[in-house]
Amino acid sequence: MNAPRIVWLRRDLRLADQPAFCSAAAQGPVIPVYVLDDARAGERQLGGAARWWLHGSLKAFGREVERHGLRLILRRGDCVKQILDLVTETGASGVDAIRHYEPWWREAEEELGRQTDLQLHDGNYLAPPGLVTTGTGSPFKIYTPFARALLRLLPLRDPLPVPAITAPEAWPGSDSLVSWDLRPGNPDWAAGFRDAWEPGEEAAHAQLDDFVERADAYEEERNRPSVDGTSRLSPHLQWGEISPTQVWHALDGQRGTGADTFRGEVIWRDYAQNVIHQFPRYPESSYRDVFERFGWRDPQKSESAAADLRAWQRGRTGYPIVDAGMRQLWTTGWMHNRVRMIAASFLIKHLLIDWRHGERWFWDTLVDADYANNGVNWQWVSGSGVDSNMFPRIMAPLSQSEKFDAAAYIREWVPELAGLEDAEIHDPADSRRRNGYPVKRIDHKAARERALSAYRAAKG
Ligand SMILES: Cc1cc2nc3c(=O)[nH]c(=O)nc-3n(C[C@H](O)[C@H](O)[C@H](O)COP(=O)(O)OP(=O)(O)OC[C@H]3O[C@@H](n4cnc5c(N)ncnc54)[C@H](O)[C@@H]3O)c2cc1C
Q1: What are phi and psi of 184, to 5 degrees?
Q2: 146, 212, 373: which to mutate for ligand 1, most atoms within 8 A of CB?
Q3: Of 100, 174, 300, 336, which has the fewest CB atoms closer than 10 Å, so is most exposed?
Q4: What pLDDT does 255 receive?
Q5: From atom 37 of ligand 1, which residue's Cα is the shortest distance away?
Q6: What angle do CA 342, 41, 20 make, to 5 degrees?
C-alpha cells in the first residue's frame, strides 16, 4: 500500500470542493488532521464564539469523514511540531493543505514546508489572493476596480466532487474533542447560539439552498435587519464548510440585481483577503497615519471612556438600533451587516474610541470572526484604511434605524422597548424609556461635532 498523506485542516472543514483532499486521495490513503494551536496565533487566538463554532464544525466533520471510512485526528500544541510528529508516526509521504493567508499561518506553512513535503492548494477564495492585478501588475487597493477585474476572470473552475478516499492501515492516536473545552460549561452562555446555528458542511449546503430560493429579494431586503434577507452563510464560509466557488456555482444562471448584488458581497470577502495579502498586519493598526495620532478617548486611561466602551459592548448606549445589534451579537454570535456598520460607526465616531477596541470585541464575539473581513471592514467604517476616507461621513443611528425599518428588530433584541409604537421606538423620549433602558450616553449632534473637531485637530 502507498504511504498515507496527511490532510492538514484549518478553516476548510469540508469534503466537497476540497482540493487538499483531492490531491491527498490521488496519492495514497488519507489521514485528516486538525491541530488546535493557540500559541501560534498569539493575540489572535480564537475568540469564545469562534471556539463554540469550531467545536460544532469539528464534530460534524468527524461524522462526515467517518461515512467515508476515515477518522478525524485531533491534536493540540504547536501545529508544525504536531504535524511533523504525525508524519513520523504514520510514515506519511507528506502533507496536503489549503493555503491560508493570516500571517501566523503563512509562517507555519513556510516552517512546515522546509521540513516535509507540503503541497499547498488554493480553495477558500474565488481566486487566489494576488492573482488579480492592475494592468501594470500591481495589486488593487480599492474594492470597485478589484471586483471588476475579478469578475472578468470568474468562474475560474467548477467545484470539485468528493474524491474516492482510502483509509490507512492503522490510525494514529487522537485527542477527544470534548477534552478541548471549546464550548462553555458553567455559566453556559451559548443557548442563543444553539437556537441560531447548526455548524457543518451539510447545514451549510441547506443554508445555501434556502438562500438561492430567496436570492431575488436580496437587493430589496439585505439592508433591513428585521427580515431574514441575507444568506447567513458567513460562519460557514469562514470555517470553510462551504467554498465560495460552490456558492458562486449555486447561483449560476440567476440573473437580476439580487443575485448580482450578492455576488458583489461574496467578492468583498476576496477583496478583504487581497488587502491582507498586501498588508498582513492590516487589522492591527490604522493604515492612514492621521488615525495613529488621533485624539481617541482611551478606555485604559479614562474611566468615562471605559464606561462608554462597556455600555457599547453590553448594548446599553441608549441608542436602540446600536443596542439591538450589540445584544444580537452577544446572544447569537452574529450581527446583521447594516447594524454592524451602524454599531461600528457609533463606537468610533460617537464615542470616539479607537476602532481597534471594536475590532477586538467582534473578534471575540463573532462566530464568523475573520482576520481579513473584520479588520478591513472596521478600517472601512472608520475611514482609516486603504479605501476612501469615510471619517467625516458620520452615520446617524436614529435615522438609519427608521430608514431601514428596524422596529421589529429592536423589539426582538431590546425587549424593554417592545411596547413602544414604531414611530417612537427608534428614538424614544427619555420619559418613555421603560424597564431600566438607559438614556443616551451622548447626544447625536454633540457627538458629531466632537468627532469632526477631533478629526480636524488630527489633520492639523
Ligand atoms: C465592522 C464590521 C465587521 C465585520 N466583521 C466580519 C467578520 O469578522 N467576518 C465576516 O465574515 N464578515 C464580517 N463583516 C462583513 C459582513 O457584515 C458579514 O460578512 C455579513 O453580515 C454576514 O452575513 P451574511 O452571511 O448573511 O451576508 P450576505 O449579505 O448574505 O453576504 C454573503 C457573504 O459575502 C461575504 N460578505 C458580505 N459582506 C461582506 C463584507 N462587507 N466584507 C467581507 N465579506 C462580506 C460574507 O462571506 C457573507 O457570508 C463585517 C462587517 C462590518 C461592518
Answers
A1: -70, 145
A2: 373
A3: 300
A4: 83
A5: 265
A6: 95
Task: Say if residue 19 is preceded by a cis peptide, omega within 30 of 0.
Answer: no
At residue 93, what are phi and psi to the nearest 5 degrees? -80, -10
CA 343 / ligand 1 centre spacing (Å)? 14
- Tell me how far the alpha carbon of residue 337 lies from the centroid of ligand 1, in angstroms: 6
Radius of gyration over alpha carbons of the chain, in Å? 23
Among 275, 368, 393, name the best residue to mutate to test ligand 1's pocket (greatest count of ligand atoms within 8 A of Cβ). Answer: 368
Report d(CA 426, CA 144) in Å as an integer. Answer: 33
Residue 297 neighbours by CB distance under 10 Å:
17
Q: Domain check: are 294 and 272 in the same one?
A: no
Query: Number of folded domains in the chain?
Result: 3
CATH number at residue 434: 1.10.579.10
Looking at the structure, tell me whether residues 303 and 444 fall in a common domain: yes
SS3 of 415, please?
Answer: helix
Query: Rounded CA gap, 345 and 373, in Å?
Result: 16
CB-count exposure of residue 157 (10 Å: 0-12, 13-18, 19+): exposed
**259-310 pLDDT, tens digit each:** 999 999 999 999 999 999 999 999 999 999 999 899 999 999 999 999 999 9
Which residues of the chain fall short of a pLDDT of 70? Answer: 1
For residue 380, report the distance from its CA to the centre of ligand 1, in Å: 13
